[in-house]
Specification:
Elements: H1 3-17, H2 21-28, H3 32-36, H4 45-57, H5 63-72, H6 79-88, E1 118-127, E2 133-141, E3 147-153, H7 158-172, E4 177-180, H8 189-198, E5 201-204, H9 214-226, H10 236-252, H11 264-278
Parallel strand pairs: 1-4, 4-5
Antiparallel strand pairs: 1-2, 2-3
């Protein structure tokens, strides 16, 4: 039994059976001084309220990311204390069943050291509430983890992908390399012609090995868990609005554990400052 359960049993023996405190403690196996101990610790009501509020806003965030958000707001908390409050409030994220994945080497791809050194592309599918399917073109910078685009449409051809890449490049510059799977759109004549004209190296991962494109696969998982599974899309324009809002939040607000708790935009800004000071990317 836990100490709390033992205290409850001692109290019951005293109140219902009329035992003395010493006798009841002896029967239950609890030290009298432990029974008499009164905690001086506060109930942390303000922290609990804010923790519940953040957990309600970010239903798929675990306690580590919630701790980062609370610290941003100026609260000084030990991670062990927050974990205790998190468990007491029963805020643990429910695990969703995973899909089967192809077996293969699980060695992670080396992270590039500069932005625009490598981008990753992939597609994600979902449905509107009337059953119509739509697709999302996902583009991520593997260095800064910035989500460069989430293009939503019912059809995304190779020509459309090329146009979207040109749009991103116009505001950011072109990558040295792009990594993707061997999907029909990404092996089309339009894409082959685009990469040749833009002099961008395009690397195709091995068939059935999504782990070779781990950066965008990780983003896909967060997109599915935190956005697509949380909303019912009534129309394509509504889906575009909600998904773009999530992309902005992902880049500017959501703490990224592999970036030391920084957001992708904050990490990119700090990297640019380091480059200006030292003449290289750290």
């Amino acid at each position: 039994l836990t100490p709390g359960a033992r205290r409850t049993a001692v109290s019951w023996a005293i109140e219902e059976k009329g035992y003395s405190q010493r006798r009841a403690c002896g029967l239950i196996g609890l030290e009298p001084k432990t029974y008499r101990y009164a905690s001086t610790r506060g109930d942390d009501a303000a922290v609990r309220v804010r923790l519940r509020g953040l957990a309600g806003e970010r239903r798929r965030f675990g306690y580590r990311r919630l701790l980062i958000l609370l610290r941003r707001e100026g609260l000084t908390l030990n991670h062990k204390k927050l974990f205790r409050l998190y468990r007491e409030e029963r805020l643990s994220v429910r695990r969703r069943g995973g899909r089967k994945r192809a077996l293969g080497t699980r060695a992670p791809a080396a992270a590039p050291q500069e932005p625009n050194q490598r981008w990753s592309l992939d597609f994600v599918s979902d449905t509107l509430d009337d059953g119509r399917r739509f697709r999302i073109l996902v583009v991520v910078d593997d260095c800064t983890r910035e989500c460069l685009a989430l293009v939503v449409d019912t059809s995304l051809s190779g020509q459309r992908v090329a146009r979207e890449l040109d749009r991103i490049i116009a505001g950011r510059g072109k990558p040295l390399m792009i990594v993707s799977d061997n999907g029909t759109e990404l092996t089309s004549h339009a894409i082959l012609r685009w990469q040749e004209e833009r002099t961008v190296e395009w690397h195709y991962i091995a068939p059935g090995k999504p782990q070779q494109n781990g950066f965008v696969e990780s983003l896909n998982g967060r997109l599915r868990d935190e956005c697509l599974n949380e909303h019912l899309f009534r129309s394509l324009p509504a889906a575009r609005t909600i998904i773009e809002a999530w992309r902005v939040d992902y880049n500017t607000c959501r703490p990224h554990t592999s970036l030391g708790g920084l957001t992708p935009n904050a990490f990119a800004t700090r990297s640019k400052q380091d480059q200006n000071q030292n003449g290289l990317w750290l």
